[in-house]
Amino acid sequence: MERLDHDPQSPTDSRDRPLTVWWLGRTPYRDAWDLQHRLVAARAEGAIDDQLLLLEHEPVLTLGRHSDPSHVVASPAELAARGIELIETERGGEVTYHGPGQLTGYIIVKLTDRGLLVRPLVRALEAALSGACSAMGVEAGPKPEYPGCWCGDGMRKIGAVGVRIERGVSYHGVALNVTARLADFDLIDACGIPGVVSTSIDRELGLAAEPSTESVGRAGAAFAVALGRALGVPLRGALAPLAEPVAERAALEEMLGRATAASSTTPAAAGAR
């Protein structure tokens, strides 16, 4: 995948400014959660541009702020025995499983600068999930009344969407099952809809590969390109396999350090790479 560099002369219209993409590889959930909060604060202050984090997590269950805890089927003892933490978050949506072989994308966007409302943002994320699936040979799309991405008769869920808006900035985002262990989804009642089963790119293609970060990186690259298209914005950064997660994280932390220093003097756009 080519580097997503753009013309170094920044557009004057903020709606045309690029979305910076970071491939971070395997990242602990709480680490990524903290990183999102720091990025949201910097974006709200105008110290950085819009960002998209692409990564995967170790097994974890997260609850949306209005989700029903009874949709967690596994007992606390079973979760503890398997080393799976249950975390209450501030995002929208129901209970969600994250784990190896699943792409997780966190989008940090200042909505007013893009001329966006929440519903169009969610639709763009759903379109990008569908686009990523299509790029990998799987037909999928949105389901009326239920956020996410679905296959076949609308009862096989392949991707989830759940966002939060604070100070006009979005965070959290999407999850897409690529080579995830689908048995882990038996821990939850997905969406609370009877008959719904979880599927993956791998399952829909009739394959049976083990979860791999490499497969998640490929899906992340396809998702980023599809999201740029859905939002009508250029992308900046590097995608897998060109991006190296350790170096990307170091560059991201350096950007945040510059943003913190800049916010004490002037709200310069410290988001350039």
Tell me what you see in this structure.
This protein is of the alpha/beta class and 273 residues long. The protein has a single domain, classed as BirA Bifunctional Protein, domain 2 (2-Layer Sandwich), CATH 3.30.930.10. Helices cover 32% and strands 24% of the residues. It has 7 helices and 12 strands. The chain has helices at residues 29-44, 76-81, 111-114, 118-135, 201-204, 213-231, 245-263, and strands spanning 19-26, 51-56, 60-63, 85-88, 96-98, 102-108, 141-143, 146-151, 156-166, 169-177, 197-198, 235-237. Strands 1, 2, 6, 7, 8, 9, 10, 11 and 12 form a 9-stranded mixed sheet that branches. Strand 7 (141-143) and strand 8 (146-151) form a beta hairpin. Helix 4 crosses helix 6. The longest helix is centred in the C-terminal third of the chain and has 19 residues, at 213-231. It starts with 18 loop residues before the first strand and ends in a 10-residue tail after the last helix.
How many strand elements? 12
Shape: globular
Overall domain count: 1
The CATH fourth-level homologous superfamily: Bira Bifunctional Protein, Domain 2
Question: Radius of gyration, Cα only, in angstroms?
Answer: 18 Å
Annotate the secondary structure layout:
Elements (H helix, E strand, L loop, with lengths): L18 E8 L2 H16 L6 E6 L3 E4 L12 H6 L3 E4 L7 E3 L3 E7 L2 H4 L3 H18 L5 E3 L2 E6 L4 E11 L2 E9 L19 E2 L2 H4 L8 H19 L3 E3 L7 H19 L10
Parallel strand pairs: 1-2, 1-12, 3-4, 9-11
Antiparallel strand pairs: 2-6, 3-5, 6-10, 7-8, 8-9, 9-10
Helix pairs in contact: 4-6
